Structure formats: C-alpha cells, structure tokens
C-alpha cells in the first residue's frame, strides 16, 4: 500500500510538471496522475534502455517528468492528425 501511494504521488507531481513544461492546460488531477504514471513507465523504459537509472525520489521525478513530456508531445502530435 505504501508503494502505491508513492507511485501515485510521483505520477501526480510528474504529470503536473510535464503540463507546466509543455504549456498546456493540464488534464486535471486524475489526468495528471495518469499522464505522470504512464510517463514514469515510458521514461523508465527509455532511460533504462540507454543505461540511465533513477536514484532517489528526485531522480524518479526527473525521469517520470521527462517521460510524461514525451507522452504529452506524442499525444498532441496524434491529436493533430
């Protein structure tokens, strides 16, 4: 249960930061959590495949936010089509 709370917290922070960085309107609390969690998975996969891992809470936030930014970029690209 403790891990799930941290996972949701990281997702919320990463989703919110990605929304701020991408100058978007945001997706609401639930949307930010979903974007952040999916971004964490994407960021973990992408950075892990090139040998970069997250060390500590700040590293996890950075990698998750980077993944969420990439996810938002891809979502907006698909939305234009």
UniProtKB/TrEMBL annotation:
**Where does this polypeptide localize?**
Cell membrane
Question: Native species of this protein?
Answer: Desulfovibrio gilichinskyi
What are the TM regions of this chain, as residue ranges?
Answer: 6-22, 29-50, 56-78
Q: What is this protein's record name? A: Transglycosylase associated protein
Query: Which InterPro entries does the record associate with it?
Result: Transgly_assoc
Topology relative to the lipid bilayer, per the entry, is: Multi-pass membrane protein
Entry similarity comment: Belongs to the UPF0410 family.
Pfam families in the record, alphabetically?
Answer: Transgly_assoc
A single cellular component GO annotation? plasma membrane
Q: Does the keyword Magnesium apply?
A: no
The source's superkingdom equals Bacteria
Q: Which UniProt keywords apply?
A: Cell membrane, Membrane, Transmembrane, Transmembrane helix
């Amino acid at each position: 249960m403790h891990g799930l709370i941290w996972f949701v917290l990281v997702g919320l922070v990463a989703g919110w930061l990605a929304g701020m960085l991408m100058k978007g309107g945001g997706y609401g609390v639930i949307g930010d959590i979903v974007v952040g969690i999916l971004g964490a998975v994407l960021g973990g996969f992408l950075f892990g495949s090139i040998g970069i891992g997250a060390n500590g809470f700040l590293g996890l936030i950075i990698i998750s936010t980077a993944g969420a930014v990439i996810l938002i970029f891809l979502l907006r690209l698909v939305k234009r089509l």
